Amino acid sequence: MANIEKIVPHEESGAAFARRYVEHLSALLARLDVEAVGRIIDLFRGARTRGATIFFLGNGGSAATASHFANDFGVCASPEGQTPFRSMSLTSNIAFVTCLANDFGYDQVFSRQLRNLMRPGDVVVGISASGNSPNAVEALRYAKENGGIPVALVGFDGGAMKDIADHVIHVETGKGDYGPVEDVHMVLDHLISVYLANVKDE
Question: Which one of 3.40.50.10490, 2.40.30.10, 3.20.20.80, 3.30.240.20 gives the CATH number of domain 34-198?
Fold first, then answer.
């Protein structure tokens, strides 16, 4: 798979770069496994029905995506007249994150939160372009070993998270294609949230 930085020579114009970037992103979206998306949507609907919590986590741009997912599930996908989602971003409480990083190490900032908050049957969504972020890997492993349901949104070759998770959406790209992978993850946020806002569970 192409690395976006390699397919556009530096001497090309901004418009040419924009065209190639959009073409590259469109190709990634065209290859998206919509059946996997559908299975994860069903998983989220089941969590809503049984009152389970959906936890989102990630680092850097993926941390922002995790918070965006939690916001959209808690507001947009929980309209009046429907059972609201229990959703939470593990990236949002910076005091808790820095406490855990300082006391236990950054690789445990998510798993330690799950130790306090996760119940059996809860869903844990790890978001990572590489699929190898140590704290996200630890969180999915903790979920799997303690009755949670691990989900991975990954890119590149899928990394360790792809092998741990029960459900995976894999945006296959060359290593280093952070922007396009994160773009697709945000599309998934809006795609899934809009669907969940408009479908009623039995």
Answer: 3.40.50.10490
